[in-house]
């Protein structure tokens, strides 16, 4: 698990020092779930938590949301190794009621299978050996924040 509380985020187009083997994962607008299923023989998801919780100040500010939210943290596994840690902020609204029922299914599948959902530009962060990206998905009038952190195991395979 990664502490995402105090990370510095920058728009992708303003970052120039990203290694190519990382950039192909960060600068991708397709479903990460679909891409991982293509790369690995066995893909699975481990839901670490999905609870109503306070969100970090930088998340609330980006979403411009002070209401109740579900914080969902998961590990995405490729061939039984953690390759991505994801943290999603899902405001509790009528727009998100179906998302909140997905259980152990990947959030990305739900977001990318609905063509009415729009995605914002990508923001990037780097901490220690881990690169991350985040973006906002707009569902109706509700914004959902999805942050994904690419673990070194992803590139080693």
Automatic annotation (TrEMBL):
<dbReference type="Pfam" id="PF04345">
    <property type="entry name" value="Chor_lyase"/>
</dbReference>
<dbReference type="GO" id="GO:0042866">
    <property type="term" value="P:pyruvate biosynthetic process"/>
</dbReference>
<dbReference type="GO" id="GO:0008813">
    <property type="term" value="F:chorismate lyase activity"/>
</dbReference>
<keyword id="KW-0456">Lyase</keyword>
<comment type="pathway">
    <text>Cofactor biosynthesis; ubiquinone biosynthesis.</text>
</comment>
<feature type="binding site">
    <location>
        <position position="148"/>
    </location>
    <ligand>
        <name>substrate</name>
    </ligand>
</feature>
<keyword id="KW-0670">Pyruvate</keyword>
<feature type="binding site">
    <location>
        <position position="72"/>
    </location>
    <ligand>
        <name>substrate</name>
    </ligand>
</feature>
<comment type="similarity">
    <text>Belongs to the UbiC family.</text>
</comment>
<dbReference type="GO" id="GO:0006744">
    <property type="term" value="P:ubiquinone biosynthetic process"/>
</dbReference>
<dbReference type="GO" id="GO:0005829">
    <property type="term" value="C:cytosol"/>
</dbReference>
<dbReference type="InterPro" id="IPR028978">
    <property type="entry name" value="Chorismate_lyase_/UTRA_dom_sf"/>
</dbReference>
<keyword id="KW-0963">Cytoplasm</keyword>
<feature type="binding site">
    <location>
        <position position="107"/>
    </location>
    <ligand>
        <name>substrate</name>
    </ligand>
</feature>
<comment type="function">
    <text>Removes the pyruvyl group from chorismate, with concomitant aromatization of the ring, to provide 4-hydroxybenzoate (4HB) for the ubiquinone pathway.</text>
</comment>
<protein>
    <recommendedName>
        <fullName>Probable chorismate pyruvate-lyase</fullName>
        <ecNumber>4.1.3.40</ecNumber>
    </recommendedName>
</protein>
<dbReference type="InterPro" id="IPR007440">
    <property type="entry name" value="Chorismate--pyruvate_lyase"/>
</dbReference>
<keyword id="KW-0831">Ubiquinone biosynthesis</keyword>
């Amino acid at each position: 698990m990664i502490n995402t509380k105090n990370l510095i985020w920058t728009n992708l187009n303003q970052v120039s020092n990203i290694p190519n083997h990382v950039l192909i994962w960060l600068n991708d607008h397709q479903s990460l779930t679909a891409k991982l299923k293509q790369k690995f023989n066995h893909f699975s998801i481990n839901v670490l938590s999905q609870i109503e919780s306070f969100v970090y100040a930088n998340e609330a500010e980006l979403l411009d949301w002070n209401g109740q939210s579900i914080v969902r943290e998961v590990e995405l596994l490729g061939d039984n190794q953690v390759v991505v840690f994801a943290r999603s902020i899902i405001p509790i609204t009528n727009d998100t009621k179906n998302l909140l029922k997905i259980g152990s299914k990947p959030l990305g599948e739900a977001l990318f299978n609905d063509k009415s959902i729009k995605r914002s530009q990508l923001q990037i962060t780097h901490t220690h050996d881990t690169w991350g990206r985040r973006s906002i998905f707009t569902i109706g009038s509700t914004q959902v924040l999805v942050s994904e952190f690419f673990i070194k195991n992803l590139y080693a395979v």
